[in-house]
Amino acid sequence: MPAGQSSEVRTLMTGVALGESPRWHVGRLWFCDWGAEEIVAVDVEGSSETLFLMANEWGGPASMGEEEATGRVLTVQAPAAGAGWP
Predict the structure, then answer these.
(1) What is the pLDDT of residues 16-30, one digit of tens each?
(2) For residues 41 and 52, what is the distance between their CA atoms, to the nearest angstrom?
(3) What's the whole-number average pLDDT of the chain?
(4) Is the dihedral of CA 37, 49, 29, 77 positive or negative?
(5) C-alpha to C-alpha distance for 33 and 84, rounded to whole angstroms
(6) What is the mean pLDDT of residues 59-84?
(7) Can you point out the beta strands (E) in the chain?
(8) Burial class, 6, CB count within 10 angstroms (exposed 0-12 / middle 13-18 / buried 19+)
(9) Could you tell me which of 22, 3, 27 has the C-alpha nearest to residue 60?
(10) With bands split at pLDDT 50, 70 and 90, how would you rate the model's confidence at 60?
(11) What is the pLDDT of residue 8?
């Protein structure tokens, strides 16, 4: 382990209903909380922010690479019920 880093396990936030699709992006962990229908970011101090409300129609964060200097997030909208994917 690099000098100055700890292997201590800590809880950064609680109350996540169904967390999925974690991505480290611009110094924070971004993930979908499908139960709350949100995209959330949390930093290493445990400060969290709801970034996007999905309203049951979004597929979540598709790409959030560190190379994206603008901090933009790509989300994917799901098709209407019964429409199927193209």
Answers:
(1) 999 988 888 888 998
(2) 10
(3) 74
(4) positive
(5) 23
(6) 55
(7) 19-25, 28-33, 38-42, 48-53, 58-63, 74-77
(8) exposed
(9) 22
(10) low
(11) 83
